[in-house]
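A.,

Following up on our hallway conversation. Structure tokens first:
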């Protein structure tokens, strides 16, 4: 993604500070929270420069996401309260309990996205290596997905099925890519990078047994459980990318 959004120097200056960033609420009870469910597989080395670049991009994307959803909500006659962004290394305390390392998650109780900055930078570096691009959209896509959870929840959309919530968040991340494209900041390779990040976070394709009854049960469980398979996630993102936010949530049908 191009650098069309202003940078926030304060954010960058704080990168070197290691440790756990808390919100001060302590580890009270754990309310609902939504995590991306990534597992780190391949080890990549993250330098301070990588971290700085990744966090810069995330700060820019956060500003763009705030702008996009604020105007979408306004047009839909609602008010968006942008989620805060808290980065951590190795876990953080939130109003939803402890946010795990190697992950990113949205906590509705304190309207905050928590992300492990090393993990997110590593996802971008992996994507860059694999695709021969700058990889930034892999990191941005993670944040766009988490903001997607905030958007859906603030509109009162919450399914009791994880997969439904995740598919909406993926679709809204796709809608952000569409917005970036419209505003001229989507680069060659960005969409592939987003797909790369989602593929590495997808649930495994359900293994069918050939037994009709058992397979039906397996498929039903897979459909409600997680983020979806690689194909489902890509398809959900693509829906937002092609159709904008209106393709993800009815509230935005007149807007985008
Ligand atoms: Zn999610």
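Then the amino acids I'd put at each of the 256 positions:
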């Amino acid at each position: 993604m191009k650098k069309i959004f202003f940078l926030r120097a304060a954010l960058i200056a704080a990168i070197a500070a290691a440790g756990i960033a808390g919100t001060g609420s302590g580890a009270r009870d754990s309310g609902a929270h939504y995590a991306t469910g990534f597992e780190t597989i391949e080890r990549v080395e993250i330098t301070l420069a990588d971290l700085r670049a990744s966090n810069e991009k995330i700060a820019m994307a956060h500003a763009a996401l705030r702008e996009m959803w604020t105007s979408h909500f306004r047009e839909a006659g609602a008010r968006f309260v942008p989620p805060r962004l808290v980065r951590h290394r190795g876990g953080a305390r939130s109003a939803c309990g402890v946010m795990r390392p190697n992950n990113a998650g949205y906590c509705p109780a304190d309207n905050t996205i928590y992300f492990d900055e090393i993990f997110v930078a590593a996802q971008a570096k992996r994507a860059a290596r694999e695709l021969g691009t700058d990889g930034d959209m892999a990191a941005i896509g993670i944040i766009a997905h988490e903001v997607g959870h905030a958007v859906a929840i603030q509109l009162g959309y919450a399914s009791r099925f994880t997969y439904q919530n995740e598919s909406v968040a993926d679709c809204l991340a796709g809608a952000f890519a569409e917005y970036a494209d419209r505003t001229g900041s989507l680069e060659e390779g960005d969409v592939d990078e987003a797909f790369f990040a989602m593929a590495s976070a997808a649930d495994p394709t359900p293994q069918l047994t050939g037994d009709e009854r058992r397979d039906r049960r397996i498929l039903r469980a897979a459909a409600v459980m997680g983020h979806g398979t690689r194909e489902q996630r890509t398809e959900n993102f693509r829906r937002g990318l092609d159709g904008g936010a209106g393709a993800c949530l009815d509230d935005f049908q007149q807007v985008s």
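The longest helix spans residues 48-75. Curious whether your intuition agrees with the design.

B.
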